[in-house]
Specification:
By secondary structure, this protein is an alpha+beta fold. It has 19 helices and 14 strands. Strand 1 and strand 2 form a beta hairpin.
């Protein structure tokens, strides 16, 4: 073990049994960064279902399907709040308005306030509203794939995945689409390594807010048909929307909207490129693409949300103390052999196609209907408009870790 490894580790707390300690650094574990899902499956086989790791300030990791599912639903014990809303408001009241940091709402807020803050967005992301966007989404997918079809190769993340969901989201949100690369690079930069230091994360949120601030302020007086305008028109508990809350909403939606589908699509296309028989089957039977998409989401889940213990608890026989961090490691929960038969095998005909790729409980992903439509449309378009494609043998895929693992590059080749 190197000295750098040692300085990144903290001492095991007295209440943590030595048998529940397992070394894993979600930001820089070499095997996790080399292939997140191979490492997640290894953890599912070899690490305790709930373990404590000394990295990143020391925290718990839940990786069994049942533990993750139960904990995500138990917001009374496993809180999304790093600070209570009252404590955060008091801190910000001491800071000049132009230096304030956006509160992470509605994601880092617990019920019942969470439901009040999230409720106004339901109509925008409802199945009916999402389906109304299908023709525009399909036109964008066709433009992107037609743009690479004649080249015989592409780096999929840069040429397609980094553009497709980002352009859709920016258009819905009301941010300038011509800045899509700038926004995407900012999201990647801030999500590639997540520090346990809350001050660092707050600075990240402030930087993102500063990029959007002018557009948000301008839209206050010039409402349009977009999410920013919708939020400005809201009243919450009788109070009109204010700039602090607007920045909070927009930062969290920005992070969520610019990263999830980018990564899901990259992992899915990587699998398709390694399974030519599956490509042929889906080309012949495109009606199977939604089932294939769901199984790809299960097999390659990549989000690991973090919760804070709200009180001392004993959970499934493990003692947890107030204030401790718990990572809900969905990549391992998605290959739990107690839940799924042959869990590491891709099988779109398995009896249980349910999964937690979009989370569970009150914080289940608000944009899941939009994400599913985007994925299905892109898989349909690729399989219809590209010949059989495979991974470039000279440039293997590259990945990164963090609480949202993802592909860095996926090089594809096709044709002669």
């Amino acid at each position: 073990m190197t000295s750098a490894d040692m300085t990144n580790k903290v001492k095991r707390p007295a209440h943590v049994p030595a048998s529940l300690v397992y070394d894993f650094d979600y930001n820089s574990d070499p095997e996790y960064c080399r292939d997140p899902h191979a490492r997640a499956a290894d953890l599912a086989r070899n690490a305790p279902p709930m373990f404590w790791t000394p990295y990143n300030g020391g925290h718990w990791m839940f990786q069994s399907y049942e533990a993750v599912s139960e904990a995500l639903r138990d917001y009374a014990a496993f809180s999304s709040e790093h600070f209570s809303p009252e404590a955060f408001a008091a801190m910000m009241a001491e800071i000049p308005e132009e230096e304030r940091i956006p509160a992470p709402v509605p994601i880092c807020i617990d019920p019942p306030l969470h439901a009040k803050l999230r409720g106004p967005l339901y109509s925008t992301f409802s199945p009916k509203s999402v389906l109304a966007r299908e023709s525009g989404i399909r036109a964008l997918a066709e433009r992107l794939i037609d743009g690479i079809a004649g080249k015989g190769r592409c780096e999929f993340q840069h040429d397609v995945s980094d553009i497709y969901p980002v352009e859709i989201f920016l258009g819905m949100f009301g941010l300038p689409v011509e800045k899509e690369r700038e926004y995407r690079e900012m999201a990647k930069r801030h999500l590639s390594v997540i520090s346990p230091d809350l001050a660092e994360n707050m600075i990240m949120m402030k930087n993102i807010a500063s990029v959007m601030r002018d557009t948000i302020v301008e839209r206050r007086d010039n409402l349009k048909d977009d999410i920013i305008s919708l939020l400005w028109s809201l009243e919450l508990e009788g109070e009109p929307m204010n700039l602090d809350l607007m920045l909070s909403y927009c930062v969290i939606l920005f992070i969520a909207g610019l990263d999830t589908v980018v990564n899901a699509l990259g992992f899915g296309v990587r699998h398709l490129a390694t399974d030519l028989a599956l490509q042929r089957e889906l080309r012949a039977k495109p009606q199977l693409i939604p089932d294939a998409s769901e199984e790809l989401l299960r097999r390659y889940s990549f989000v690991a949300p973090i919760r804070i213990m709200k009180k001392d608890s004993t959970f499934r026989g493990v003692q947890l103390l107030q204030g401790e961090r718990v990572m809900m490691f969905i990549p391992s929960a998605s290959v739990d052999p107690k839940t799924y038969r042959d869990p590491t095998v891709f099988d779109m005909r398995r009896e249980r196609l349910s999964h937690m790729a979009f989370g569970a409980g009150p914080h289940v992903c608000l944009g899941s209907h939009l994400a599913r439509l985007e994925l299905n449309v892109m898989y349909q378009t690729i399989l219809l408009r590209l010949p059989e494609f495979r991974l470039d043998p000279e440039r293997p895929p590259q990945f990164h870790g963090s609480i949202i693992a993802g592909p860095t590059s996926i090089h594809l080749v096709w044709g002669g």
